[in-house]
Specification:
Radius of gyration: 40 Å
Structural class: mainly alpha
Oligomer: single chain
Number of strands: 0
Number of helices: 2
Helix content: over 70%
Distance between the termini: 96 Å
Largest sheet: none
């Protein structure tokens, strides 16, 4: 961006009128070529800046998408972990209930 600003400043300076009554045709022709060269350079630099800005925007979009994907995967992982823990707790509770029932029937059988 600084290079572009410098080139634009050079072009602006080249457009200031020459302070002299004598007109040097060769100097004016040289200055005209210089201005044309600067204008083309400015156009190229602006294209480079626009291309770089587009690349930054594309990279930003990819980063946002990757973040969203990561968040979605984390949600799915958390949901599966929650479901796994619930299934484990249900199996443990069932085992405890069966043991309590077995203990109850066993103690009831001993009393009879």
């Amino acid at each position: 961006m600084a290079v572009l600003a410098h080139t634009e400043k050079c072009l602006e300076q080249s457009l200031t009128p020459n302070k002299g009554d004598d007109i040097d045709v060769f100097a004016e022709m040289h200055l005209s070529f210089y201005r044309k060269s600067l204008s083309e350079k400015i156009t190229g630099q602006k294209e480079d800046v626009n291309r770089a800005a587009q690349e930054v925007e594309d990279t930003r979009k990819k980063a946002v998408q990757a973040r969203q994907d990561r968040q979605a995967i984390e949600k799915i992982k958390d949901k599966h972990l929650y479901n796994y823990h619930r299934a484990e707790e249900a199996m443990e509770q069932k085992l405890v209930d069966e043991m309590a029932l077995y203990s109850h029937f066993r103690s009831a059988g001993e009393r009879s």
